[in-house]
Design a protein that fits this description.
The structure holds two protein chains of two kinds. Chain A has eleven helices and no strands. Chain A is an all-alpha fold. Chain A starts with 8 loop residues before the first helix and ends in a 6-residue tail after the last helix. Chain B folds into two domains: 73 residues, no CATH class; 217 residues, MetI-like (MetI-like fold, Orthogonal Bundle), CATH 1.10.3720.10. Chain B contains 13 helices and no strands. In chain B, α10 packs antiparallel against α13. The longest helix of chain B is centred in the middle third of the chain and has 39 residues. Chain B is globular. Classes of the chains: A mainly alpha, B mainly alpha. At the A-B interface, α4, α5, α9, α10 and α11 of A face α1, α6, α7, α11 and α12 of B.
């Protein structure tokens, strides 16, 4: 019909996403957190390492909206700085996990030889690796060397991102492979094959775009999981060094002062929780929006 | 049945070997070895250092070294802890019961929460109960275990002073009092882990029940005039829980990760806190062995899930 407006798939997805009220609310909340973390440095220009022993563990006040830590350093400034690292680790680790997972899944999904079985065996093997102990082991063994090559902060950033991403690609690989197995037999792919499209073109132009929906959902949830894992490492005292106040590191410092400075622990904890919760809800909304089987 | 069991065990062995190979390669790729200090020590001539390396086989190909390490592990020779001055296997055996107790109790508690909530939510999909349960599940697995642990300590130990926040293995009491003290100190670590687990399990149970509840045989059972309670309990739940077994087993790596954090917060003397102490003390034999034990526990729980699956679902052929 000529009068009917045609919606692009993305617009259709956005229409479905908007129906998930919690997801929309989470999107606003996450946008606010990201904005605060990115631009807070200019809105709240206080040094993160200005030590003031007269204001140790001060409760939230006008001078220090989030209070101060055990050395009298302003907690709001440290939260802004730490949030950048936590979010950057989450995003970067998600990218690593998605790239590795998509590559492995795509190869396993396209190959019709033993490679497919071998890669899936590898995936299952990685799935049964205990990730946190392994993460701790790798950091324990390689910390010194990376520090020497890339410098303290960058070295640890690269290592944490690589290791968290490198231990989280398996669900994505399984997802992509399952999608590929069904998509590669579809008529439109066969048509492309009949027209002489190379394998690479079949994958990149025809199969992968159609498999993208679940991958985006998995990627969203991976950001949340990576933020939790980075905070866990920092909380155990084995992540970033003490002078880099990531949210997990702030919690680690706060846990000894629970009885007289509860705000010190509650604020970074709540920040991690709200960020992760909003990302998870957005993932849920995206699942509703991008799964064409769930047309409402 | 025995055939199935045997086959499952035989499948578990290569994955254990694979995991141990991954661990060993990680260790071998790491910079530095036990003799690296000798080369920088001016009192040790280079020939002596080289002959020591040769004597202990450090220059052999990696697969040879892996094989030797694996044989030693199988023989129970797990090395010597530099920090604690005892054999590693003794140290782990001493610490393992606390971890198994905390993990096991929290899994049971999580199942006790997740199964009823998931079943009720799925039998009334999109009702108010379902929506509230779903929101709570999201909150539950977005709360990192270290934060829930600290909040519980803040509320129940610091503010209310009801529960102790340090787990002690040397309680000076006897009889019922001893049991009571142990339960009291286990409440917080167990519930932290259980809350985290229950939230994802609730979602598994809900979707599994939803898959089953629409099947024809459930309609048949209702048509026969059976009460809703009997239909749900005897016909739906029994079938719906079969895939949940596998999903719970797949969660085990995350559970042990959570156990490390909880043990560290509440100072539970388990292998998780042992791992952290060993890492901070550069105690490589302990670090390697504990990681390997965690891997074994994960593989073991997958194996148990497979066996349970075969036992619960008669459609799986044993031959």
């Amino acid at each position: 019909m000529a009068s009917q407006r045609v919606f692009s798939p993305w617009r259709e997805a956005w229409r479905r996403f908007r129906r998930h009220r919690l997801a929309v609310f989470s999107l606003v909340l996450l946008a606010a957190i990201v904005f605060a973390v990115l631009f807070g440095k200019w809105l709240w220009p206080v040094a993160i390492d200005e030590i003031d022993f007269t204001a140790r563990l001060a409760r939230p006040s006008l001078a220090h909206p989030f209070g101060t830590d055990d050395l009298g350093q302003d907690l709001l400034a440290r939260m802004i700085y730490g949030g950048r690292i936590s979010l950057a680790v989450g995003l970067a680790a998600m990218l690593v996990a998605l790239s590795v997972g998509t590559l492995v899944g795509a190869i396993a999904g396209m190959s019709r030889s033993w490679i497919s079985g071998g890669l899936m065996w590898l995936t299952d093997l990685f799935l049964s690796l205990p990730s946190l102990p392994l993460l701790l082991l790798i950091i324990y063994l390689f910390r010194e060397q990376l520090k020497a090559v890339f410098g303290l902060e960058l070295g640890i950033f690269i290592m944490i991102v690589a290791v968290i991403g490198g231990l989280r690609w398996m669900p994505v690989a399984r997802l992509v492979r399952a999608q590929f197995l069904s998509l590669r037999e579809k008529e439109f792919v066969e048509a492309a094959r009949a027209l002489g499209a190379s394998r690479f073109r079949q994958v990149t132009r025809h199969i992968l775009p159609n498999a993208l929906g679940p991958v985006i959902v998995a990627g969203t949830i991976d950001v949340a999981a990576a933020i939790i894992q980075e905070s866990t490492l920092s909380f155990l005292g084995l992540g970033f060094p003490p002078d880099v106040p990531t949210w997990g590191r702030l919690l680690y410092d706060a846990k000894d002062y629970l009885d007289f400075a509860p705000h010190f622990a509650l604020i970074p904890g709540a920040a991690i929780f709200l960020t992760v919760l909003s990302i998870n809800f957005i993932g849920d909304g995206l699942r509703d929006a991008l799964d064409p089987r769930r047309v409402q | 049945m025995w055939n199935y069991l045997l086959r499952r065990i035989l499948i578990a062995i290569p994955s254990l070997m694979g995991i141990s190979l991954v661990l060993f390669i990680v260790l071998a790729l790491a910079p530095g070895d036990p003799f690296s200090e000798l080369t920088t020590n001016p009192n040790v001539p280079p020939e002596v250092a080289a002959s020591l390396r040769a004597k202990f086989g450090l220059d052999d190909p990696i697969l040879v070294r892996y094989w030797r390490w694996l044989l030693a592990m199988i023989h129970g020779d797990w090395g010597f802890s530099f920090a604690s001055r005892v054999n590693v296997d003794q140290l782990i055996l001493q610490r393992l019961p606390a971890t198994l107790f905390v993990v096991g109790a929290s899994q049971l508690l999580a199942l006790a929460i997740a199964i009823p909530v998931g079943v009720i939510a799925a039998s009334r999909p999109y009702s108010l109960f379902d929506q509230v349960a779903n929101t709570f599940a999201f909150v539950g697995f977005s709360l990192p275990t270290f934060f829930t642990g600290l909040v519980l300590i803040l509320v129940f130990s610091v503010q209310l002073d009801w529960l102790p926040f340090v787990f002690r293995s040397d309680i000076a009491a006897t009889g019922w009092r001893w049991y009571w003290e142990n339960v009291r100190q286990a409440i917080m670590p167990v519930s932290v882990l259980a809350l985290f687990q229950a939230s994802s399990m609730t979602r598994f149970v809900r979707s599994a029940v939803l898959d089953v509840i629409r099947l024809d045989y459930v309609t048949t059972a209702r048509a026969k005039g059976l009460g809703e309670g009997v239909v749900i309990r005897k016909h739906v739940v029994r079938n719906a829980l079969i895939p949940v077994v596998t999903l719970v087993a797949l969660q085990m790596p995350a559970v042990f990760g959570g156990a490390i954090v909880t043990e560290q917060i509440f100072r539970v003397p388990g292998i998780g806190s042992l791992l952290i102490t060993a890492i901070l003390a550069n105690d490589t034999p302990v670090v390697m062995s504990v990681t390997f034990v965690f891997a074994c526990l994960v593989v073991l729980s997958n194996l148990i899930a497979d066996i349970l699956y075969g036992w619960l679902d008669p459609r799986i052929k044993f031959n």
